[in-house]
Design a protein that fits this description.
The chain has helices spanning 7-15, 48-60, 75-87, 100-114, 129-141, 161-167, 190-199, 219-222, 249-252, 291-295, 298-307, 309-331, 358-366, 398-414; strands spanning 33-35, 94-96, 120-124, 147-151, 172-178, 203-207, 226-229, 244-247, 337-338, 350-354, 376-378, 380-382, 386-390. The protein has 428 residues and is α/β, with parallel strands linked by helices. Helix 3 runs parallel beside helix 11, helix 4 crosses helix 5 and helix 12 packs parallel to helix 14 (398-414). The chain is globular.
Length: 428
């Protein structure tokens, strides 16, 4: 069937979707709530509910502290080895622990200290602000011996690898970038950037928060040094689920973590008064693993591994291309601009749509006035004018995309967004 804007076309695509059955593995209680924010918080897998109940009632309730010798102690490594399969890493190169920011702090400080007199930390203006805050804080803690340099985009959507090549030199200590930009969804060619960085003697650190679970990665093969990421977006680990870190095996015993925590010691339960860093990836732990929070990660990881990352990426590309097509047909005439790369090889799994009234349009999508619409769409808003629509291939349907874009078109035609305040809520 030739591509068109008819809803029947979306339904035909859904009928041909080899992943259609996986939507039923997620908790969906309202078919008229179109959820396109899985790039911020993934849906709840059905299997997570009984799994969490088992952890609470049996592992904690019945086993009590004995749970530490029945799998809890090894949980950061066990989950890390499973997650490693999704990012192309070795089982002993990934650790699930702490938050993305804490892990970023640990690896940034370790890398800058390891690099000696090199003084430049290279990042870009697309990076998530909290990443930049962490870099700024580390630089101050290390005595302001380093300087943060940010690459600038010419079009507010992309940054070419040639610009990175021009900026990297013998003084570059660390190149620290987010692979998929949180606003535009622009995606770096990780292998090429890593190669360019190594040519100049620098280390590279990637934030994978917007790529893990939807973009094929080969960290070990590509020689990536360091990486961090969260588990509550496309990995569906739940709100505030622990993050992960990756350290290339050859670097693990050479780097010195800035936080000398209890579980980072060689033998935590010998209670030595002098810290002795553990061998390998364990030295990047800090303290007691968050067992209840970690419990939400595993069921979703199992689903992702069952499907396979290449299959997920194929559907993601089909759906983002379909979304962009509808936006071009329906929304561009109403003043919208596409804020993401049109080239799928340079785009993650969300699409940014830009409009001067993006915030109020978002409010109209989420909370329609009584009687105005029964369909609600949950996207998110990113300043100054971005509506982000996240595609989670495991549960997003083509019909979801069609209905959501048609809803935006209707909001614009009716002008209902004009009834909403420009005053922004704390969480957008």
């Amino acid at each position: 069937m030739k591509k068109n804007t008819d809803h029947k076309y979306a339904q035909e695509l859904d009928s041909q979707d080899p992943l259609a059955e996986y939507r039923n593995r997620f908790y969906i209680d309202d078919p008229d709530l179109l959820y396109l924010d899985g790039n911020s918080l993934g849906r709840l897998p059905q299997a997570t509910i009984p799994h969490l109940m088992d952890v609470v009632e049996n592992q904690w309730g019945k086993n009590l502290i004995r749970g530490w010798n029945q799998g809890w102690f090894e949980k950061p490594i066990q989950l890390g080895s499973k997650l490693a399969k999704l990012i192309g890493a070795e089982p002993d190169e990934v650790l699930v622990c702490d938050t993305t920011s804490v892990n970023l702090f640990k690896l940034t400080a370790a890398a800058l200290q390891y690099q000696g007199d090199r003084s430049i930390l290279l990042s870009d203006e697309f990076n998530f602000p909290s990443d930049l805050y962490i870099f700024q804080g580390v630089i101050e803690l290390l005595g302001n011996r380093h300087r943060l340099h940010l690459l600038q985009s010419e079009d507010s959507i992309t940054i070419g690898e040639e610009l990175i090549q021009d900026e990297i030199n013998e003084d570059t200590a660390l190149v620290a970038l987010t692979q998929v930009a949180f606003k535009s969804a622009f995606m770096y060619q990780m292998e090429e950037v890593t190669r360019l960085t190594h040519q100049a003697g620098g280390l590279v650190l990637w934030d994978l928060s917007h790529s893990v679970g939807v973009v094929p990665l080969k960290l070990t093969e590509w020689g990536v040094d360091l990486a961090v990421g969260c588990t509550y977006k496309y990995l569906n680990g739940g709100p505030g689920a622990p993050a992960f870190l990756y350290v290339r095996k050859e670097l693990q015993n050479q780097l010195k973590t800035p936080i000398w925590g209890w579980f980072a010691d060689q033998s935590p339960f010998e209670f030595n008064l002098e810290f002795r860093p553990a061998e390998g990836i364990n030295r990047f732990q800090i303290s007691t693993p968050h067992i209840l929070s970690m419990a939400g990660i595993e069921p979703a990881l199992d689903i992702l591994l069952e499907v396979g990352i290449d299959t997920l990426r194929e559907k993601s590309l089909q759906q983002t291309e379909y979304l962009i097509y509808l936006a071009q047909e329906w929304l561009i005439p109403h003043g919208f601009q596409i804020g993401s790369p049109l080239d799928g090889t340079r785009r993650g799994s969300h699409v940014s749509l830009r409009h001067p009234e993006a915030y109020r349009i978002c409010r109209a999508m989420i909370d329609p006035t009584p009687g105005e619409a029964t369909i609600r769409v949950i996207p998110d808003f990113r300043t100054p004018d971005n509506i982000r629509l996240g595609i989670a291939p495991l549960y997003t349907t083509f019909s979801d995309i069609h209905r959501a874009l048609f809803r935006i078109k209707t909001i614009l035609e009716v002008g209902s967004y004009l009834e909403y305040s420009k005053q922004q809520l704390k969480v957008t």
